[in-house]
């Protein structure tokens, strides 16, 4: 377990990554640094996780039709009813959950805003927020902005499952929120029922709210996704977050949502109205249409992505890395140690020049202790065309000779 530093307000966006320059000015994140490096070297960018192909044409057409029809002014703060109903139906169709679209669902500007609004609504100085580590980078930043303390429980290679005793020890009487990300970015882990049930039991014991980030819910390669809110004892204390960006490959539209019991949702809405007030009007009806696409669409995205995972994983293995096969998300992690590398951040900075591929070092998703534990790990995104992944694999095959 680690506790993040108690920083000054101006430092609070630092997650252990290089968000702030040494002089306190806002620095670039490692994601931007790698994207800039990829552009300047012509490298294939497997760093930041966004697809290189758009999602379904009918969803795009629906957004264009909505713009043409004049859906261009503020949407209602909680989202258009058509989308809130579609989100509720989606939860019922896949998980048997039935959030009330009037009072238990709100549309947000991506999952990012849902995470921010939930944490800012629920925690403040003196409170602790517990996440697994490595953790998605916005978690550390928003916990810092809320003035709360970030406590982590480690996920350990090769399968990135938590040690349940360590998880239990990370809870305290100050734990206000346990923020679970499943399927998990950056590790690609999908947590089994026992882990999620333990989270629920511990949250109940400490009277903590569970915020669950399930943006990769449809991008899994093994058992079907298990939403935390569906587990016994969870519904009355769980806020569930998802996003159209990952499921439909429209990451630039920034349409997300959050559902849960009315008292928690109305707290989130109170904050959301002062963050963005409302979210992209013409995209909302288009995503409502997307959520209603037939089962074949959902099965298809997972199948396509599994194929891509396997192409890139094979290439990474052939390049000499130890590959940790992900069960979900569109990220694969490798250990660079078999190639004699001890510092993945250093390799990530050299990789575009060496072989023309960009990746993200896993330590940037950690506090200091976790960064040490994951020092030699790199994360590659495989949400790219198969031809691009095959080319990346070919380039990576030359790495050993260039080190
Ligand atoms: C775990 C996780 N949560 C949230 C987000 C952000 O989602 P959105 O683009 O909908 O804000 C991402 C995007 O990479 C993510 O990986």
Explain what you see.
With 403 residues, the chain is of the alpha/beta class. The protein is 42% helix and 16% strand. It contains 15 helices and 15 strands. Strands 1, 3, 4, 5, 6, 7, 8, 9 and 10 form a 9-stranded mixed β-sheet that branches. The longest helix has 24 residues, at 295-318. The model is unreliable at 5-26 (pLDDT under 50). Residues 49, 110-112, 136, 181, 185, 213, 215, 243, 245, 251, 254, 256 line the site of pyridoxal-5'-phosphate.
Helix-strand layout with pairing:
Blueprint: E1 2-3, H1 30-41, E2 44-45, H2 57-68, H3 81-95, E3 105-109, H4 110-122, E4 128-133, H5 137-146, E5 149-156, E6 161-162, H6 164-170, E7 175-181, H7 193-205, E8 209-213, E9 238-243, H8 244-248, E10 255-259, H9 262-275, H10 281-291, H11 295-318, E11 322-324, E12 331-335, H12 344-355, E13 357-358, E14 360-361, H13 368-373, E15 377-381, H14 386-396, H15 399-402
Parallel strand pairs: 2-13, 4-5, 4-7, 7-8, 8-9
Antiparallel strand pairs: 1-5, 3-10, 5-6, 9-10, 11-12, 12-15, 14-15
Helix pairs in contact: 1-12, 2-10, 3-10, 4-5, 4-9, 11-14
The chain binds pyridoxal-5'-phosphate.
